[in-house]
Structures are given as C-alpha cells and as structure tokens.
Amino acid sequence: MNAIKERAEALRLRNSSEKLPRIGRMLVEKESDSLWELDTKTLPRACRKWRRKARKFADEAIRPLALDADLDPKNFDHTELFRKAAKEGFFTTLFPRPVGSAPWRLYFRNTVYVPVIIAEEFAAADGGLALKLMAPNLGIAPVLLSGHLPSIFRFFIPNYLSCRFGGRVRTFSFAITEPEAGSDVEDNEGAVTARLGTRARKVKGGYLLNGSKIFISNGAISDATTVFAKLEGEGIESWTCFLVEKGREGFRVGRQERKMGQRASDASELIFENVFVPDKNVIGKVRGGWPLNKNVLNFSRPAVASMAVGQARGAFESALQFAKKKYTGRKRMIEFQEVQLELAGMVQDLWAARSLIRQSLQHFAIPQSIASAGKSFATDTAWSVANRAMELMGDEGYLHKNHAERFWRDIRLTRIYEGTNQLNRLAIIEHHRHTDFK
Q1: Could you give the C-alpha distances from 290 to 284, 359, 368, in angstroms and in order?
Q2: What count of Cα atoms within 13 Å lies in the side-chain half-sphere of residue 407?
Q3: Distance CA 69, CA 159 (A)
Q4: What is the location of CATH 1.10.540.10 in the chain?
Q5: DSSP letters of 348-408?
Q6: Of these four, 109, 144, 195, 391, which has the most CB atoms within 10 Å of its CB?
C-alpha cells in the first residue's frame, strides 16, 4: 500500500512536471500556494493587500475572542477591538484616501469592493464580531449614497477624518425594521401596505420622531443612527432618512434580543418619544428615503453574502482539520474517498458563491437583481456547507469549542437580514419583468 501511495505521489503534476520541456514546466502551476492564496492572486493588486491584512487581523484580533464573545456577549467589551480595527483602517473603507482608507482605483470600480473582501475574512473567524465590525459601514452608508453634499461634509467626512487621524471611533447603525414592518420595507409591493409606525412631524427648525425600530445591529453601542421614518399622515412614499445622535432627549435603547447566532453583535430596539431632529440632520431630501433605502441594500447585500461565505469557510475549515486528525480504525478520515468527495463538494460550492459575489463587484452601481442573486445564493449555499460540515464531524460538530456549530448558527441570520432570501428572489424577477431577457 505504501508503494502505491509513493507512486501516486510521484504522478502529481508538481512532481512529474520535471519531465516536461522547459517551456512546458513554466506553464505548470506547481500547487505551491494554498487555494486561498491562489484565489487572492485573482483580485486587483490593491485588494490583495487588504485581503491579507484582513485575514491577519481576523487571526490575531478576532479569533481569540470568538468563543467568549459568543458565550457572554453582554459582558464583552468591544472597545479594544474597535480601537485596533480603526488603527488598521477597517472603519474607513467606504471612501478613498486621504479622507478614508480605500485605494482610489478600487473605489471607482465599486464603492464597496474593499468592505466586501474584508467581510469574508472577518466572518471566517466569527460571524458576530464580523457583524459588529462591519455594521458601522451600513450605518453611515446612507449619508454617502444619498449624494447629498451638505450631509457628506457635515457627518461623513468629519467622522472619517476623526477615525483615521484622531483615533476617535464614532460608529453608526442603520434602522429600517419596525415591529409591524420587517421585510415589507425591503420589497416594493410589500412597502405599499406596510404598517409603518415610526413617523416624523414637522415642527419649527426640524422634526419630532415617534415610534420604534427593532433588530438594529449595534443599536445599543452606536453614537448615531440613520433612521427611516414616514411623515405624519403619509405613507411609505414620504419615507425620509434622519440622522439621530445618541443622547438626544427621548431617544433610548429598549430590548436587546437574545439571538441564536451572531451573538457578539447586539440586535436592539430603538425607541423614539418626541425626539427632536434638526433640519440639518435630514439625510438627502425629504421624502427621498425609499430610493435611498433600496440603494443602500443593493450595496450592502454583497457584504452580507461575503460574510456568509466566510462563516461557511470557517465551518469547512473546522471539518477539514477534524478529518485530518480523526482516526476511524487505522485510517484518518481524510484518507477515505467518501470524506474527500464531501469536502470537495463544499469547496466547489464556496467557490461558486464567491464567484457570484465577485461578479456583482464588477458593476459600479450594483443592479438590484445581481445584488439579490448573490446574497440569496451565497447565504443558502453557506447554510448547506455548514450543515454538511456538522454532519461530517458528528458529535464533535456540536461542541462549542470546535466552532462548526457556532458558524452554523451564525449563517442562519444571513438568510434573513438585508431582505429574506425569498424576497431577494422576487427582486431578481422584478428586474426581468421590466426588461428584456437577453
């Protein structure tokens, strides 16, 4: 048996390629790099640096905290983690240098190219901490994507300069979901009949906000929140985006949910009781909230998809390491072809999902159908991969210390937020209903 293995090893392309002519040897991939590194080399040069930097940060700063943050999220202190992330430039990737930290070439290729690449690496270490670190991008995105220069110069640029050069991490959250209007506000037809409770009444110098938002990621720790509210007496067409700063009278955090997964990031209720918001804190135009919300979701869905792929990759890597170490009789599990086939199937699925995400990044303004297709496909695929990793590991997969069950729990949420996957599939068809399919 050993002789067969030795002969088989000799037949591997990297070992047998020496028998080719010199030019032929130059055309052979020697498999000296990991699959992760080979994939990294396909990225634009500026983005390779960010992916390697994000993986290093995830290994050194996120992974050691993952188990404890998942077990006891309420007592987890994120301050030092945020400080380190800010120092590395991870909080300022939605704008190019010198204000932000994104490379100019990549930024004008796609605004969220760098955050999407970072999201996978962070999530491969822990889904909850990845969400905690990525949610500020979503919170401040309405300011940038509104294209409203006064808001950008008043809120976005000062925040980025403070974070990049002053060491002051001021985080934002994004609030659209309400107790009686969840995914309704992420679908055109559902929005028309949505029971919207958060409303704004015009008063001298600004607006008074009343109502509540739920399931707001980082809602309990954010310094400011971009809140979408209808104008009093009107419907979804009047939706307007308001920037509400922490500490405003009448603005408070309510219930913090106990979640199945992504536990390190809070999902909080935000309550507004006659909260005064000055006119200058209107983001974009009055009644311009609906298209702004849709635009933000189209830009954030690739990042959610990338987080799901990262979490599934974490589950796969747990299963792979388990198969390499676990013996069944006298053989390690990795030596059984059935196990190899199962692991290979997981790798293929992850590649396919990642490829669809990368396709969406080829568009400067990501079309709704492509953003929705990538998000729904990647998150469903990730769920399948995590399930198979758990099955392969058997009882070991259920142990918290082995990570797979945590990734399995974390992935489930990615199929819900940024629109349920069912609604994202409807968004794909919405595009084709109004255009020719060619």
Answers
A1: 11, 26, 14
A2: 35
A3: 27
A4: 36-166
A5: HHHHHHHHHHHHHTT-SS--HHHHHHHHHHHHHHHHHHHHHHHHHHGGGGG-GGGSHHHHH
A6: 144
Q: What is the pLDDT of residue 434?
A: 67
Query: What predicted TM-score, i.e. pTM, was given to this entire model?
Result: 0.92
CATH of range 36-166; options 1.10.540.10, 2.60.120.430, 3.40.50.280, 3.40.30.10: 1.10.540.10
142 touches 276 (CB < 8 A): no
What's the topology of domain 172-287?
A: Butyryl-CoA Dehydrogenase, subunit A; domain 2 (2.40.110)
pLDDT attached to residue 197? 86
| Region(s) of the chain under CATH 2.40.110.10 | 172-287
The DSSP letter of residue 233 is T
Task: Extract the tokens encoding 373.
Answer: 């297709």
- CA 286: distance to chain centroid? 29
CA-based torsion, 201, 207, 211, 215: positive or negative? positive
Q: Give 79-116 pLDDT, tens digit per residue.
A: 999 999 999 999 999 999 999 999 998 888 889 999 99
pLDDT attached to residue 191: 66
Query: Beta strands 251-256 and 224-231: pairing type?
Result: unpaired
Report cis status (omega within 30 of 0) of the bond before 115: no
Backbone angles phi, psi at 327, to 5 degrees: -100, 140
Among all chains, which residue has been given the structure tokens 């300011």? 143
User: And the tokens for 240?
Assistant: 């307007």
**Which parts of the chain have pLDDT scores under 70?**
1, 8, 10-11, 13, 25, 29-32, 182-193, 434-438
Position 34 scores a pLDDT of 85
Cα separation of 407 and 430, whole Å? 32
Q: What is the pLDDT of residue 172?
A: 96
For residue 270, how many other CB atoms are within 10 A of its CB?
A: 26
CB atoms closer than 10 angstroms to residue 325: 11
CA–CA separation, 267 vs 174, rounded Å?
A: 11
Q: What is the pLDDT of residue 21?
A: 81
Residue for token digits 């399995």?
408
CATH number of the 291-433 domain: 1.20.140.10
Q: Distance between CA 193 and CA 184 in Å, rounded?
A: 8
Chain centre to alpha carbon of residue 325: 31
